[in-house]
Structure formats: C-alpha cells, structure tokens
C-alpha cells in the first residue's frame, strides 16, 4: 500500500473559530509503505491522472499542482487509531458523491450533538465542536502543534465516477506499481531509466536516434510512412496489468498517426495485446481531428475494430490518455478506453474483448510506440509520451 506522509499543523478555522488540523505549507512525499521509494498517487479517482511529481506543496484547502482538482468533502487522515477530518470548501462532483456527502454530514451532525468521536462505525471521525475541539484540546490529543499522519490515499485505477474522491481508509485494495515514468530528464539516443521499472529499450538499435527524452516527455520521431517505432521496459514482466499513458501528437501533418500501447509483450515484442489510437491531423482533408480507437493483438490482428470518431476535434499537442487493461487467462479480458486529458475519464470501456490465444496467456512487458499511415505526407511526425504508469489489478 502506498502511503502519503505529511505534517499538519494545528490551526484555528478563521470562519468558525473552531480548532482543527490545517495543512500549512506542508511538503507531501509519497512513499511505498515500509520504504523510502516514491510512488505515484492519483489526483482524481474518476480521471485517474497521476500527480506530476512525487513531491508537492500543500496549503490549506489549496492543493498544488491540482491535487484532487475536483475537490472533496472530507479527507480522513490516519493518526494512530484516530482519523482527523480535513474539510474542503469545494463542492461535490456529481449526484452520487453529493448523496454520500449528505449522509456524512448527517452523521457528523449527530456526532457533534453527542459531543464525541465516532468509534462504532469503523471510521473514527473527530468532530469539530467548539466546546471540546479547541486548538489546545487537539494539541493535547494529537501532539503539540505538529501531526505526522499516514494516509491510505492511493485509489485503484478505474475507480468509477461516483466514488468520493478523497475518502481514504475505505477498503480500497492495495496497488502494486510495476512501472512509472514522467520523463523529467533530457537525453538523446533513448529514454534512459524510468522512475520505476528499469531501463527503456528501443525495439531496434538503429532507431535509437528517434527516441529522446526532453524534460517532461519522451519523444518518438517516426521518420517514414508504414514504419513503427517502439520503446519497452524489458525488466517489467507481469501477467495481470493495467497501463495508463498520456501522450500527444505534436506535428501538424496530412494523414493519420497511430499511437500504440502494448501489454504482455514477449518473444522480442512479437506477441502482445495492444490499444490502438489513430489520430488524424487537424489539417486532414477528410477526417480532420478525428480520433479512432481499436484493440489488437499479435500479428496486427484485430480484437475489436476501430470505433470511428471515439474523440473529435483533435489539435496537435493536445494530450490524450489511454488505458489498457489485461486481466486473467483463457480467456484474457482485454479492455481499453481513450479520452482527452483535460476531461473526466469515461466509466465504460471504448473497446473490450476476450481472447485465449495461447501465446498471449503469459506474462509480458509494456511497450509504447508510434506508426504512420501511408497517407502521411509530412515527415517526420513526433509523438510525445508525457507519463506512463503500469500497475497490478
């Protein structure tokens, strides 16, 4: 279980005069439990967007950079056996969250009337009460001025919309991070080492010059039509896996540029499952800015053909997220969806299929790459990978 460790200073709510824990200029470091290894966390349960850095600065009710950007009603912070509510003035995102928030408010009102702390529900909430929860009382209960709190704040990829975004300690299963990279480095002739997952390998040594890191994105330059360029993490070999990638097509062209996310790649990358995202240039004569999504497997065989116009209105440089999920064997359930990074993640899969091809019922590695259709007349075309996260299921 990944944990968030931070310090919270006791403060007084200026609006009510009540004492409560406030996050004051704290530095948040996300570490794997029992280690000092940074791991990604999720900004939003519905969007599934990883935080851009393993460290960020937190101020009262303001989370930078856009931490839980849609806001939350209550964050239960674990301190020993107690949970301290840290309240936000930001509203809820949808009816399901609003209903949950209303139930919590009713519960908290009842607890406040009783002047105590809930213990019978399994979620012990400290209720702000002017008679008992002054700053002095909080300091006496939780320590002089500074609290060190551990939060189970990692939510699993694909958590559906309607889940309270920042509710922690709610039984969410642990997530194993197999690979993660934000490309916060610069270099040519390959991508170097991922933040987690070892060294990136380019599929063919002759293509090393086409794969570069550029301080926040890994770039893939495809220099010929009907040509593929791939990078993979050869040391990450897993069976059940979920891969989340943020990417963009950066070069204006005339044809189609295909971005590929492959999982369970083995046999030198010959066998795999893949999510296929085809982006037509904004200047394309027939399908300007259209984004199509399909599922495939080894040998360029389709599992599910393209959903035409899964996204529309693409302009070069706009970020797209694609999630590929591989679960089980005989059959393997293969699922994918794609959405604009500045929009909420869909709650349904764009494409989903079951497959029992023997060669792909084994563990394999993640790969990402690009391909140009034969109609592309502007060369080279550049695809940027902004971040990648591969987790267990």
Quick synopsis:
The protein is mainly β and 393 residues long.
Order of helices and strands: EEEEEEEHHEEEEEEEEEEEEEEEEE
Give the C-level CATH assignment of the largest domain. Mainly Beta
Low-confidence stretches: 1-101, 114-174
Shape: globular
What would the average pLDDT be, to the nearest integer? 65
Largest sheet entry: 9 strands, antiparallel
Under the CATH scheme, the architecture of the largest domain is: Sandwich
Amino-to-carboxy terminus distance: 13 Å
Give the strand content. Answer: 35-45%
* Class by SSE composition: mainly beta
Into how many domains do the coordinates divide? 2
Number of helical runs? 2
Question: How many distinct beta strands?
Answer: 24
CATH topology of the largest domain: Jelly Rolls
Radius of gyration: 23 Å
Please give the share of residues in helix: under 10%
Question: Can you describe what's shown?
Answer:
This protein is mainly β and 393 residues long. The chain has two domains: 150 residues, no CATH class; 215 residues, Jelly Rolls (Sandwich), CATH 2.60.120.200. The protein contains two helices and 24 strands. Strands 9, 10, 12, 13, 15, 20, 21, 22 and 24 form a nine-stranded antiparallel beta sheet that branches. Strands 11-14-23-16-17-18-19 form a seven-stranded antiparallel beta sheet, with no helix packed on it. β4 and β5 form a beta hairpin. The protein is globular and about 45 Å long. The N terminus is likely disordered.
């Amino acid at each position: 279980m990944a944990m968030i460790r931070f310090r919270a200073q006791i403060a007084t709510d200026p609006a009510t005069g009540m004492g409560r824990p406030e996050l004051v200029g704290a530095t948040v470091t996300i570490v794997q439990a029992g280690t000092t290894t940074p791991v990604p966390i999720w900004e939003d349960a519905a969007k599934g967007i990883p935080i851009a850095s393993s460290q960020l600065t937190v101020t009262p009710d303001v989370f930078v950079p856009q931490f839980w950007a849609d806001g939350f009603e209550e964050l239960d912070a674990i301190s020993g056996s107690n949970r301290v509510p840290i309240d936000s003035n930001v509203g809820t995102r949808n009816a399901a969250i609003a209903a949950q928030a209303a139930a919590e408010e009713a519960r908290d009102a009842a607890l406040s009337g009783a002047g105590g702390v809930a213990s019978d529900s399994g979620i012990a909430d400290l209720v702000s009460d002017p008679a008992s929860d002054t700053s002095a009382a909080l300091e006496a209960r939780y320590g002089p001025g500074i609290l060190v709190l551990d939060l189970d704040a990692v939510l699993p990829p694909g958590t559906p919309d309607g889940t309270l975004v920042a509710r922690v300690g709610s039984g969410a299963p642990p997530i194993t991070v197999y690979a993660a990279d934000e490309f916060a480095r610069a270099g040519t002739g390959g991508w170097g080492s991922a933040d987690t997952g070892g060294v990136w390998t380019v599929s063919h040594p002759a293509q090393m010059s086409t794969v570069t890191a550029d301080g926040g994105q890994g770039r893939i330059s495809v220099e010929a039509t009907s040509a593929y360029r791939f990078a993979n993490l050869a040391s990450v070999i897993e069976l059940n896996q979920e891969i989340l990638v943020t990417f963009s097509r950066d070069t204006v062209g005339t044809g189609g540029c295909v971005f590929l996310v492959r999982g369970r790649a083995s046999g030198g990358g010959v066998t795999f499952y893949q999510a296929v995202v085809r982006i037509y240039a904004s200047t394309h004569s027939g399908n300007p800015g259209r984004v199509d999504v399909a599922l495939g497997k080894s040998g360029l065989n389709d599992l599910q053909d393209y959903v035409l116009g899964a996204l529309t209105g693409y302009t070069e440089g706009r970020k797209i997220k694609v999630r590929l999920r591989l679960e089980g064997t005989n059959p393997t359930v293969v699922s994918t969806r794609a959405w604009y990074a500045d929009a909420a993640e869909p709650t349904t899969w764009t494409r989903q299929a079951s497959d029992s091809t023997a060669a792909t019922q084994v563990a394999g590695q993640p790969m990402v790459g690009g391909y140009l259709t034969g109609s592309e007349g502007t060369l080279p075309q550049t695809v940027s990978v902004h971040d990648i996260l591969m987790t267990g299921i």
